[in-house]
Amino acid sequence: MDPPKLRVEKASPVEDPKDTEDKSQPSTRKALHQNIFGKLRPLPFQYHWTFWYDKHSDGTSDYDDRLYVLYEDVADIATFYRVYNNYPWEKIPQRDTVHIFRKGVRPVWEDPENLKGGCWRFRVPKRKAQAFFHEIAILCMANEFQAVLEKEHDHVLGVSTSVRFNTHLISVWNKLGSNEQSIKLLEETILNRLSPNLRPTDAGPNSYFYKRHDENEGYKEAIERQEAQK
Prior knowledge:
Elements: H1 26-40, E1 49-54, H2 63-66, E2 67-74, H3 77-84, E3 97-102, E4 118-125, H4 126-141, H5 144-149, E5 156-163, E6 167-174, H6 180-193, E7 208-212, H7 219-228
Antiparallel strand pairs: 1-2, 1-3, 3-5, 4-6, 4-7, 5-6
Keywords: Initiation factor, Protein biosynthesis, RNA-binding, Translation regulation
Protein name: Translation initiation factor eIF 4e-like domain-containing protein
Pfam family, one: IF4E
């Protein structure tokens, strides 16, 4: 199945938070968005961001053939919604992934910024997945996560959403996968800043967990392949 295409036909203004919030929790989500949007309206993002599409493979195709840019330069909140609102999220095939990463960083383990990193991964029920990813993306680009990691000299590099059978696997990537304090701070911030109705109901691995990139099967082979291409 071909991945859905991005067609950005016209600019979208910064939308009213009530247009995207979960109507079952209007007060908490509206407060979250109003707080963030109030900070973002006057100024561009501190970092620029890129939307990527990652097509699932059985391992027989080269990674560069599966990964491509959807939109290269998201510099402010209006551009974010111009892309986000025009993307057919409901048409993403199972096991395909969309990433939002700092411009210049590729969403692969072998990128220099990711070599020693890892990510928090959340298994989110389909009914909540899009709202969860929307909030995670806004919190990431608004530097809500980055602010708590500054003293640890760590960086949040991007977020991802990957479609599974009855859940989405949503990830928050950071640069220092061995910094336990940084990892803990990031966990606390994610859980505290998410709307209450979107927070995981338990702390077990079936709900969310942290994993360093070098703990993944295939990491060593990916790094060796990258080195061989230099």
